[in-house]
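We modelled the chain as a single entity of 302 amino acids. Its sequence is:
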Amino acid sequence: MIIKYLSVLALVFALGACSSDSNSSSDGDATAGSTTGATTGDTTGGTTGATTGATTGATTGATTGATGSDGGRPGVWFGNNNFGQGVMIIDANENIYALAKSTSSDRIESVFGPASGQLEHFFHRDSNDTATASAGSFTLVGQRPSTEDPVVAPDTITYSLSVENDGQQISNTATDAPFTMTFATTNDVRSISLADIAGSWSVATSFCDVGCDLTLNMTFTDTGAVSGSTVFEGGAPAPLAGTAAAAAGANQYLTVSFEWLSKRRSGVLYFDREDSTRLVLNAIGPDDNGLSESWSASLIRQ
């Protein structure tokens, strides 16, 4: 478990200097580092993510009743999935945005895609340089499992979801990844609004031992405007801009969509279950290779 301020040649040099220390030569944050580091994910990834203003069909924190008998019930779910303890958000179109702390390794696992179809799987490593990275941070740009050597997990996964216990639990019955998660109330994942997150947020990450610091800065207004940048090794910022919006019928996550280095990323924002002062970004978007790439972070208010 990631600028236009540099010339292309200088960016490629930065990537080459850092990539040997990462888990894989295709580490997404090394790519991110080189042009802000980077250029990120697949046009299919951007559409896999929810567009700004996507609606969710269920009032998160409602007491009972599933909106559907099988498949993904829109809302926020928490508990252990097939990777570890985390949060799974299902939007009104039954698209999944999941982020979990692995129980078997020091990394964060992310999953995106349709609840009833093939899901894309990425992992984020803990930041390497703890002297410069924010506490509890992990690599901004996710890697596909196929970039590991040896490969220990597939790049895609399929869930078979069903809602149970009067809508209070959701279970995956797929034999290779069974789990049960609980429908979250605002006691489990706190409510969120544009006014709540208005202001500046940041996290410093590191994707190799030395010389691979990548900082994400995001500023939100109470009207939904998003601005910010990534900064690689203290260089000139690579700007990002977009919008955030309330998810109709849901009060525990916001939708977000922004453009960075001419590529759009879409996903969700919510307060961290483990530390509600931190803001989780879990998004997906395109890279330069026709593939999707995750963008995930635990942001700290500035």
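As a brief sanity check on the tokenised model: Residues 8-19 form the longest helix (12 residues). Residues 1-27, 34-69 have pLDDT under 50 and may be disordered.
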